[in-house]
Amino acid sequence: MISPLGDFHFPDAPSRLYPQTPERPWVLEIGFGDGRFWPHYAATFETAPNYLGVELSGVSLLKAQRRLKNAGLDNAILTKLPADVLLREVVPHGGLDSIVVNFPDPWPKAGHLDHRLLRVPFFEQAASRLKPGGAVLLTTDHDEYFDFACAAARDSGVMNVVLTEPPPAALETKYALKWRDLGLSPQHARFTPTAHPVVPHGDIHPYPEDPDLVPHAILTLPADFIPAAPGQPFEKRTTRAGGWTVILLDLYASLRRDGWVALAHVVEGELTQEVLIGISGREDGSHLVRLAKFGGPIITPGVKAAVGAVTDWLEESGGRVTHRGY
Ligand SMILES: C[S@@+](CC[C@H](N)C(=O)[O-])C[C@H]1O[C@@H](n2cnc3c(N)ncnc32)[C@H](O)[C@@H]1O
């Protein structure tokens, strides 16, 4: 099953994600590619552990979904997200039995080391999200990244590093076979937490059922208000504050009722969302600015700021704000 971010709770729980098998071990695989690892690895258990797979490539996601379905692995959830967002916001403290990383992108250029996944913050977060006795399992053919990751794990102060043989399933992935054909042999490390620091979840929530809790504002617009001169493009507006950037990209007129819809691009670290913010007429002549449910947005400080950015823009255009609910 493929789950978008909006389908999760923050944090989530095995009893909700895997209602048929909540008691089984829980494995997270980061960057699963075309999904070859999990059918091989799951087959080494008497009953398949619960599986959460995170990947950035949409094409890989579809290939992996087909593979897991053919293998009859029902208690598997795949999602297209940056791994650190999933680990920080979705996975509960002490939730996972293992985190598997096979052949991570090595980012070999000197200026790109910050793009590497296996740095100190990752190990701190992993130690917080693993159960006592859990482990991060790294397999890679890239010797320099392997040493870098082991050093980062030691520097984190919360991981013990054991160099050992990779699980056979890690030698069956697409990249394992590619490097094997080139004569390269992988290394494997098992990182086990020596402490479980509390790495907090962010201020992030599902789209609320209660309309009053959806980020919104109410304002009165001038009687002659037009958002842009006819034929003129909407002028992009960017606002930034600690942790988020909001870009109001475009504005569309609604044919159905008195109003418009603004398109905003919201960036918060690794997390990006495109959200729609409606501006619609109310019976009393005022206007409601509200985050639309379309696209399954999740409520973050940046998304609230996007509603604020639309409200501020309307205020600058002569609107009088009577209520801010964000
Ligand atoms: C070199 S490939 C390895 C794929 C697979 N593990 C294998 O062994 O065949 C690395 C994969 O990690 C994914 N990836 C890179 N950064 C990621 C991130 N921050 N979160 C999730 N996936 C990521 C990439 O899209 C890519 O599919």
Automatic annotation (TrEMBL):
Enzyme class of the recorded protein, top EC level = transferase
Q: In which pathway does it act?
A: tRNA modification; N(7)-methylguanine-tRNA biosynthesis
Catalytic activity entry: guanosine(46) in tRNA + S-adenosyl-L-methionine = N(7)-methylguanosine(46) in tRNA + S-adenosyl-L-homocysteine
Binding-site positions, substrate: K109, D141
Q: What GO molecular function terms would the record report?
A: tRNA (guanine(46)-N7)-methyltransferase activity
Q: Which domain of life is it from?
A: Bacteria
Q: Which InterPro entries match?
A: SAM-dependent_MTases_sf, tRNA_(Gua-N-7)_MeTrfase_Trmb, tRNA_methyltr_TrmB_bact
Pfam families the record matches = Methyltransf_4 (PF02390)
Query: What positions does the entry give for S-adenosyl-L-methionine binding?
Result: E29, E55, D105
**Can you name a GO cellular component term?**
tRNA methyltransferase complex
Q: CDD domains per the record?
A: AdoMet_MTases
Q: Which UniProt keywords apply?
A: Methyltransferase, S-adenosyl-L-methionine, Transferase, tRNA processing
Report if keyword Chloroplast is assigned. no
| The enzyme's E.C. designation | 2.1.1.33
Q: Which family does it belong to?
A: Belongs to the class I-like SAM-binding methyltransferase superfamily. TrmB family.
State the function annotated in the UniProt record.
Catalyzes the formation of N(7)-methylguanine at position 46 (m7G46) in tRNA.
Q: What is this protein called?
A: tRNA (guanine-N(7)-)-methyltransferase
Which gene specifies this protein's sequence? trmB
